# Entry
Amino acid sequence: EDKVVQSPLSLVVHEGDTVTLNCSYEVTNFRSLLWYKQEKKAPTFLFMLTSSGIEKKSGRLSSILDKKELFSILNITATQTGDSAVYLCAVPLSGGGADGLTFGKGTHLIIQP
Amino acid sequence: NAGVTQTPKFRILKIGQSMTLQCAQDMNHNYMYWYRQDPGMGLKLIYYSVGAGITDKGEVPNGYNVSRSTTEDFPLRLELAAPSQTSVYFCASSPSGTLYGYTFGSGTRLTVV
# Structure
């Protein structure tokens, strides 16, 4: 069974801090790993990672994948209150499912002013 | 704005009642998905469709049905509502699987009492 485990489940930091969110996965046929940000409503796409060791970057957010150790991290530097959200990690289902995704439980990040 | 539109946004059902959650997209995407999200959990795939006339089960299909008569619409039907179906339901679409990421609707919060 496909499995995605995120840690920590919740995290409270002060504005300006740097945070690292973790995602480990077990899938039979790995193709990609995706990160989403979920505020009050629908998840919004952040990154898709397919190759090991190549960092994806968007402003203060960056992510990297380690296919040997089966994990990914999402870094946020100089955090702002607007970064407060649930961050979800997901991988495509092994059995096909037209790339339906298996999601982790998410990391609930709270940035205090 | 183009995107995925879900209706209704909120609904309270009594046990045993039926309802249809509507989902429409205007991006001409072939792939559409229904997910449910329970508190503190990641999203779980209910059903998906790779094109008009084609649907298939995801991870948690019991108690639900879908149809895909057009490219644009992908309604989710609950026939005999149960408290275990209390959840937030998200519809998503994609041009062709996770390669391009998903576009999510804003969700339907359903409570069964």
DSSP finds no helices and eleven strands in chain A. Chain A touches chain B at residues 4, 9, 31-32, 34, 41-45, 48, 88, 90, 92-93, 97-106 (CB under 8 Å). The CA atoms of residues 15 and 80 of chain A lie 5 Å apart.
